[in-house]
Amino acid sequence: QVQLVESGGGLVQAGGSLRLSCAASGASGGTFSRYAMGWFRQAPGKEREFVAGVSRGGDSTNSAPSVKGRFNIPRDYARNTVYLEMNSLKPEDTAVYYCAADRDAALGNIITNARAYDYWGQGTQVTVSS
Fold first, then answer.
1. What are phi and psi of 107, to 5 degrees?
2. Torsion sign over Cα 31, 32, 36, 39
3. Fewest Cβ atoms closer than 10 Å to its Cβ: which of 19, 73, 82, 110?
4. Are 16 and 2 a contacting pair, CB within 8 Å?
């Protein structure tokens, strides 16, 4: 069982930056490296949507068109942590952000469908003011 805890959300002005962290516990013995990791977000009245993902080995990343070129998703295996680096933030980025782990991901593969993910964090609020 893996527990995911997000942190780093907050209020920021448009054009600013934030870095979200997602720490995985219960993933000892190199288990963290077996999971593809993803970030999703959900704004009020909208469905949860894929934001960015990184493969098990960290050699492949994917991001939604709406954030491509602005968001990065590095992962630190020593700290069992994945990050979401968000730059040039826009008011439409306002949402609750969730990290998730996909334990069945094939090497190099990143699934954008939330249903494929097995573990979820509790979410962290990001608010971008105009």
1. -55, 130
2. positive
3. 19
4. no
Please give the span between the terminal C-alpha atoms of the chain, in angstroms, as a whole number: 40
Q: Which residue has the tokens 């494929």?
A: 116
36-42 vs 49-54, strand pairing mode: antiparallel
Q: Which residues contact 128 (CB under 8 A, 6 or more apart)?
A: 11, 12, 13, 14, 16, 89, 90, 91, 92, 93, 94
Phi-psi category of 120—alpha, beta or left, where left has phi over 0 and alpha has psi -120 to 50?
beta
Q: Is the pLDDT of residue 10 over 80?
A: yes
Question: Mean pLDDT lowest for which of 9-18, 23-32, 42-51, 55-64?
Answer: 23-32
Looking up tokens 């964090």, which residue turns up?
121
